[in-house]
Structure formats: structure tokens, C-alpha cells
Amino acid sequence: MLLTVTTTHRPATDLGYLLVKHPDKVHSFDVPTGTAHVLFPDAADDRCTAALLLDVDPERLSAARGGRRQQTAPESFTLGQYVNDRPYAASSLVASALAKVFRSALRGESKDRPALVGTPLPLEIHVPVLRGTTELATRLFEPLGWAVTAAPIPLEPELGGDSRYVDLRLMGELTVAAALNHLYVLLPVLDDAKHYWVAPDEIDKLLRAGEGWLAGHPEKVLITRRYLAHRRSLAASALERLDGDDADSVDVPVDTAADEDAELPVPRRQSLAEQRREAVLAALADSGAARVLDLGCGGGALIGALIKDKRYTEIVGTDVSARALELAHRRLHLDRVPERQRGRVTLWQSALTYRDDRLKGYDAAVLMEVIEHLDPPRLPALEASVFGHARPATVVVTTPNAEYNVLYEGLTGMRHSDHRFEWTRAEFAGWTARTASAHGYDVTLHGVGDTDERHGTPTQLAIFTRKEAA
User: Fold this and answer.
1) What is residue 334's predicted lDDT score, i.e. its pLDDT?
2) Sequential DSSP letters for 50-95
3) What are the protein's UniProt keywords (predicted)?
């Protein structure tokens, strides 16, 4: 199995620092299924290529599985573990090798080039043999900023037609860490098989590698199902946790026809993200607001719903992350808005812990799954900025209910790695009461999502109403 990463950034040999591998050496690593080699066939100032070559040992692959076979695995027949495409076609084996040999690079760490870690570089990824289709490869990688070329590999001339494999090339300007995390998740998704038993800890691996992009990916349902080997409970738990981070989430309808092999049935009930969004929309409608702020808008999920309702004459989304605003701009197709609609939706970069005069004078503001991303000592600054300075007539706030977390299979700790805290119902009630009293608001509390008798609902919602506007 072969995978190459190429850059034309100058000096291109900086790629070695980012991958923490010296371009003049061949690096070899034992992995449970064989030996992984990292080498640099091209290492010049204007172009540098790093190659990951995985030499699969069928006997070690069999031993690594420990006799536990998944029903979806292609080697489920007697000799399948020895006679299959795994020594040749990139799959979860390559993803596992990536995780081991490029561990620091995946985490975005480089002691020699720390300033370059967060810099997008011109990159080209080449995977010569990969099971999948051109259409699926495009659906998976294109939304992440890659230009995708997936050429079908033809069968032997006497057979005619194309095989089920593609020669994949990706080109784009991304950070090396982002590129490697995309590959780590999506290679096994394209292959639609795992070479090892999928346990609950795979959820954490998926969410860690998918941080910042998976929640907003239009194919997040398909990706989650396939990555977790179609295990119903794990996929459902992972999707609930992804839905819990609407700051980066854009929900799309589930397309079952696009994943004909999926064993996980499409849920008939609404996702938590949809329920939360509908609760926020209902609160805004009840308030009579026409000019609305979505503070911490992330990928623009709520804005997309607001646009469809003509009662909202002005919609402003703000986020501290330029990357999130770029995603929202792309998802909302703001560059293709009709002339008569231009100016109705605006995106601003703004930090909620600083006073911003542009936010004053609006009818309503929404903080949907935002406050838990702030360090607790910064909350008073947010309160002063939103409730004290901007002072919209209505403020709608949602946040996770920490008590409900025990009901999520495989969840340890908080629902998202970027959450700084998650409050119980009593803690949220205390914060809302203090904030309302300090800034002249009344507040009512509601729950969103399925109700558990002991633990309440997964999401907490507060509606603040400015007293002089009541």
C-alpha cells in the first residue's frame, strides 16, 4: 500500500519537520499488521514528497485480529485473510499506520517549525489504489477544500470495464495536520471495512480526528456509519455528540440511496441538533424579532434556517474563527445570493468576550451551544458584552445538560474536546438567574430533546427577555 504527500511550499523540505521525519533517511516502524516505511523520493527546495509504504504481512494481520471477525469484513470466508486486496489497496490498515508513524503531525505538533503547523500549504495527496468510486471520493473530500481527481482503474482488457478501485489525487491548500486527519478518517470510510474490532473508544478517535470539520460535513452520517463499521449504537452515540456541537455543525438530510450498503437504519425521529434548532426558532418567533444575531454561528446551521423565514429582515452571524466563517459562507452560498436578498445576511468576525458596537440595536441574539466553549473566568466578559453592552431585547441560550451524559454509550468526560465545562440543571439555573438579575432581564428555562426521568433532557435552553422591552 502506498500513499504520498507532496508540497511545493518553499523551502519544500519543511515537510520533513512537519512530519517529524528526516528527508535523508528511510524510517521503518513495526505495526501490528506488517511494517510501515516512510521515505522521501523527492526532497528539494521547490518540491518535496513524503511516501508512506505499508508492507502487509498476512500472518501478522490474522494474528492482530485475534480471531474476532466482523461480519462486514471482506475476509470473512475461510481463506479470505490470506487472499484479498489488502496488500495492494489503501484501507484502514493505512489509516492505522498513519496514526502511528505521523502521531505528532496528526496532533499539529512540530518543535522545529511551530509557526508552520497552522499554516495552509499547497499539498498534493496521491493514493494509487483505493477501493471506492469517483463519485463517493468527490463527495467526501471536496467539501473539505480538496480538488479531487479519482480515476477509475480499468479491469484487464479481456474483461473490459472498470474495477471497484480508483487512483486518487487530492490537491489543495490545507495544513498538514488537517490533511492527515482527513485521510485517517476517510480512507477506511471509502473502503467501508475495518481490519480490527470496533469498540466504543473508536468514537473518541473519530471525534478527535474529525474536530473542526466532521460536524459540518454534508456526509457526516455516512462517514460516521462507515467509520464505526455500521454498529448502530456507536454510530448513534457519535452522531448525538456531533450534534451537540452546533458551533461547527451544518445538518443535511440523510440520503439512504447514497449508502446502499449501510446496515444502520435511518432514524425516524429528529436528531438532537434539529430539535434544538427548532426550539431556538420557536423562541425567536415568539419574541417577534426581525433583526437577529447568531453569536458563535460556526458553520451556519441556524442561519440557514433563519434565511428560509421571511420574518427575519436582517441576520448577522458572528464567530471568532475565520475558518468557521469561511465554512458558513460556502455552505450558505452567499456569493450566489439574488440581488434583492443581498445585505440581509452578514458574517462578521467578532469575539464575544469583547464589546462590539456593531452588535447593538438588534431584536434578538442566540448563543446556541457556545458558552461551554469559554473558560469559566471569561464568562463575566461575555455577560458584559452581550447582556450589558449589546442588550438585545431577547437572548436565547442553549448548552448541554451534564447530568444527561451518563446515557451516552462510550462517552467519557464531556461531549466535545473543546468544551471547557458542562453544567448540571441546577448550575445552569443559577447562572441564568444571576445574569438576568445583574443586567435587567427576566429568564425562563426549558429542556430540549428526549426527557429522562432522572437526568432530564440532553439540552438546556434559557430565554432572557429585557425587562424594559417586556
Assistant:
1) 81
2) EEEEEEE-HHHHHHHHTT---TT-TT-STTTTTSSSTTTSBSHHHH
3) Magnesium, Metal-binding, Methyltransferase, RNA-binding, RNA-mediated gene silencing, S-adenosyl-L-methionine, Transferase
